[in-house]
Design brief:
The protein is mostly beta strands. It is built from one helix and 23 strands. The strands form seven sheets. It has a four-stranded antiparallel sheet, with no helix packed on it. Strands 6-7-8-9 form a four-stranded antiparallel sheet, with no helix packed on it. The longest helix is centred in the first third of the chain and has 16 residues, at 3-18. The model is unreliable at 6-19 (pLDDT under 50). The structure holds (2R,3S,4R,5S)-2-(hydroxymethyl)piperidine-3,4,5-triol (DGJ). (2R,3S,4R,5S)-2-(hydroxymethyl)piperidine-3,4,5-triol binds next to strand 6 and strand 14. (2R,3S,4R,5S)-2-(hydroxymethyl)piperidine-3,4,5-triol (DGJ) binds next to strand 6 and strand 14.
Amino acid sequence: MTKLRLIYVLMLLAPLFAGAQTKQPLVNGEQWLDTAGNPLNAHGAGMLYHDGKYYLYGEYKKGKTILPEWATWECYRTDVTGVSCYSSPDLENWTFEGIVLPAVPDDPDHDLHPSKVLERPKVVYNTKTGKFVMWAHVESADYSKAAAGVAISDSPTGPFTYIGSFRPNDAMSRDQTVFVDDDGKAYQFASSENNQTLYINELTDDYLRPTGRFTRNFIGQSREAPAVFKKDGKYYMLSSGCTGWDPNQAELAVADSIMGEWKVLGNPCTGKDADKTFYAQSTYVQPVIGKKNCYIAMFDRWNKKDLENSRYVWLPISFDNGTITIPWRESWSPADL
Ligand code: DGJ
């Protein structure tokens, strides 16, 4: 075969290999691409493992970053476009499943209108109802709403139907996550009282509302970006301080009971830029299914003036010698865990 012919044949065969799952190390802070070659767009994300696949849900930040005219602080934002979903069998190759909760451009009063703010979506599966339930932080355009929005779907890849928003237990709810315990009970963790105090709100059996049982934690300590995991019967919460889009020092806390009391352990990050959480902010901790003692701490490296171009930092948590640390790594591969 001539050289030219060989090139032609290779070009014809290329699409066959394009969808193949390859080992793609995660290079922290670099642009990550999905399986179609587009930038991964899932910020303030959460993850769900369901029926052999991981699902990643995040803020789909598209377009220009703006600072509203009235802004007295750095409340940079992009228009709300919705919540994206990606799926992966291996935590490395991510396939875009679409915008599973889209913005609602034709109703200026809707929580999901582009002029509003939609952050930190988290999806959990309810084994009793068979529904996938999404909780997210929703804000009015002037950032005074401080509420939780809830949506529901029959499938992990949506579409999600928006149910509405409220302040859980009549308290403000901004940065948030949802954690499902081994007994199937779910809890929403939310920065409340003007981000001063972190509320843990127990949820009803269908995961759609708070039961009314809640605790106030880290009172006056301004914790944001909560990410919760459980290991060997203890609960852990990774969180950030409260400095807008700018990085600060992370903190790990532990509790024997999920509603508290929580005890602060300190900064788990180690290595280069550990005092600034590697210039990133926590969003979720995902256990690696089937691998003992394997958890991935997920962070956002915000680019506040160009939020669509924010990057990701994912790091395996180390449990060496009974001490929990999150050591910096430039790059790593989930396949090597
Ligand atoms: C910090 C929060 O963690 C982010 O989700 C975002 O709300 C920014 N503040 C806005 O300044």
